[in-house]
Amino acid sequence: MFLKNEMCPEFEWKKYVKRKNPYWKKWGFDISGLDAAYYGKLSGIEADHYVTRSMAVHYIYPYLDRYDFVPAYMDKNVQKTILGLPDAELGVMAAEDVVYNANGVFYTGDGKECSRETALDTLLSFGEALILKPSVETFGGRGVVKVERGTDRTEFDALMTKYRYDYTFQKMVVQHPVFAQFNPTSLNTIRIVTYRDPSKRRKVLYSCMRFGGEGSVMDNVCSGGGYTGVDIETGKLLNRKRYSYFVMDVPSLPDSLPDRIPCWEVLKAAALTLHGRLPQLDIVGWDFALSPDGHPVFIEFNPRPGVGLQQAVGPMFNREDLDELMAHVSKVRAKYLPLGAVRFKDYPDRTTIHHKFFG
Amino acid sequence: MSKLIDKLVNKAIGILSRYKDRQEVKEYISGIRSSQKKLKQSRSLTQAQEKEIQEFYTGLLGHPIPLEWHRFFYSRTGIYSKLYLPTSEYKTNIVGRLNVYPLKRAYTDKNLSDVFLPSAHQPRIYLKNMNGFYYYEGKAVSSQEALEKCRNLGDVIIKPSLSSRGMGVRVLHIREGRIDNGNQTLEEVFKEYGSDFQLDELVRQHKDMSALNPTSINTIRLLTYRTGMDVRMVYSVIRIGRKGKTIDNESAGGISTQILPDGTLGKYAYGAPGNDRIEYTDCGVRLDGYRIPSYQDAVEKVKEYHLQFPFFNLMAWDIAIEEDGTPTLIEFNVTPDLSQSANGPAFGEYTEEILKDAMSRKNTWSRIGASAMWRMNVGSIHFK
To answer: What DSSP string runs through A231-288?
Structure first.
């Protein structure tokens, strides 16, 4: 899967695919050296303790996150409620819903249920451009579109019919001018991954600035955008390279871009504080925009952050943390997960449930 | 090759899933047969009745159903109806269609009820333990701080936040870090409960509710069904504790009786099989015609609450009535047990409508992924 879906075809994968990764072998896992070689080549940080997708999805994330809570927590319509956002005291804002749909039921932005007609009326009376996006599984920005000002009732109705259920119409977020420099047409966000270690300390694992491609609305790589690593201590851009998928020869970012993320300490603090409100999840990927006056704007959180950003930042865990974590995972593995790989692979996530079950 | 492996694995999972469903159905049937043996009277269904039942259900579900439940309720109540719903069918084939089962855990975590229903009147939650982390009145605290803050709380209820049927619910009298009504320290109690529990204010119930049994909080259980923007009251029952008991659930020997639309009680209450057709509470209160205070308020409130849960079309609500008549939400449930002895057929006049609605949706219960994860998590809570 990694070969087919995530690796640049130019990479000399044949050299590495049959080699076994000694780090994972130490823990009893038979993992190819391919992922580590690939990530190391791109990031410039050679190491054998890169976390592969299979290890993350089948063993590490199930250990760290309460999977009985994950399906509900992946619904973006519910995330702000769970986190208690917006939080004026904390100084964290949130993207505002104008109308959202949960399981086919419409709600206005204040959480009141309404009919489809009322939802249409609300959208029409709003009068400004909106972002429409699914509330579940927006991997790669799937389904995220800008709805222009002046959209009429018929067009809104057609969009509602097309999206069917679990989506939201949100107000456009106005971003900080420094964030806008990365790409003015898209809402550019910072991904901060936080981790709660076995001693219950919360820490930032890594961070990346994500931005859209020219003319794109979304900040995702899939829309022609890119990402670049951020130093978690200083907020400085790590190596000023513009990463995207399937590209070995990573270009540099333009010199005109800033060398530091503004309000970095505020963003970091927001992620760490909010993680404290999610006791069921020990690893979370946070996506924040930044308002013009320097307030973090919560976009979403991800209980199972992708591992692909290791291309830009190096191994997601430092070795000591990973050793400590794997010591626990390995003990649990023997007891609970003899078929773990099979079960977790086929665990029906929210979108799978919906689209498989409702057609 | 990996596609082939995926296919084989999915096939194996499908086989396992169907096997587990069959095992589950067998367990339910075994359970109801064992309950039937405890009844004082046994009634058989006539051939015509059996035919009527099977025609009705085959038309709606596409297959015949086990008749054990119809025999059981007919034997117990003396009332025949084709509309009784077998628990085996309800649990494995109905409720998972009406409700998105994999979302259940987060939405029914009692520690999150104030988050999902901030405007609902609920007992004050002093302390939450969520996955091992303590929160006192909403603020994160260490375990030591939690003990310190709770050391003189007085009368409280402690309950697991992820269980149902009153399991693990206790009244505690906490003074100086010790439990007055038990030989334990508060620390020992917290250790015993482990994680995922809460300490709530003890509800002072209305005198008319207390009269039924003063030692327990006697709650109204309302079952609501949502269709579009319309929420229907399917049935309501009252659960009354037995003399000296602190909880009203059947698991603690409690009894249930129907609440009629005008807020008065039905004639008979039922407890565990064998405890049938009870006309008086243990305190000597006659049930027939007894009026429940603030009943209509409670009905209106739960209909409002249900609109906040778009993923669950069938929900059960447990409401206590406070001293001043305020309906207070104790908990809600998205895979509720059905009170067919006390109430009669679960879905009553809505049976056909609800079953048709259910069968138009896919089943989110019977996939091995969801049910296996549920079982694994129920067994181990989590993997740590």
So the answer is: -TTT-BBSS-B-B-TT-SSPPBPPTTS-SB-TTHHHHHHHHHHHHTT-TTBSEEEEEE
Are B373 and A337 in contact (CB < 8 Å)? no
Cα separation of B58 and A121, whole Å?
43
Q: What are the helix (H) ranges across B38-142?
A: 47-61, 68-77, 87-89, 95-98, 104-108, 113-116
Amino acid at A248: M
* pLDDT, tens digit (0-9, with 9 covering 90-100), for A149-197: 999 999 999 999 999 889 999 999 999 999 999 999 899 999 999 999 9
CA gap B383, A278 in Å, rounded:
17
Rg for chain B, CA atoms, rounded = 22
Q: What is the pTM of this model?
A: 0.88
Q: For residues A15 and A352, what is the distance between their CA atoms, to the nearest angstrom?
A: 36
For the segment B66-97, what is each residue's pLDDT rounded down to a tens digit? 999 999 999 999 999 999 999 999 999 999 99
pLDDT classification of A248: cutoffs 50, 70, 90: confident
Nearest CA in chain A to B8: A342
Cβ-based contacts of B130 with chain A (< 8 Å): 279-280
Q: How far is CA B194 from the centre of its chain?
A: 23
A81 at interface of B, judged by CB pairs closer than 8 A: yes
- What CATH code is assigned to B206-344? 3.30.470.20
Q: How many helices (H) and strands (E) does chain A have?
A: 14, 12
Separation between Cα atoms, residue B127 and residue B117, nearest integer Å = 18
Q: What are phi and psi of B51, to 5 degrees?
A: -65, -45
Find the helix or strand (DSSP H, E) in which A126 lies.
helix A116-126
What's the CATH code, domain A70-93+174-322? Answer: 3.30.470.20
Closest approach of A158 to chain B, Cα-based (Å): 20
| Residue A25 touches partner B, C-beta closer than 8 Å | no
Task: Quote the ipTM score.
Answer: 0.85
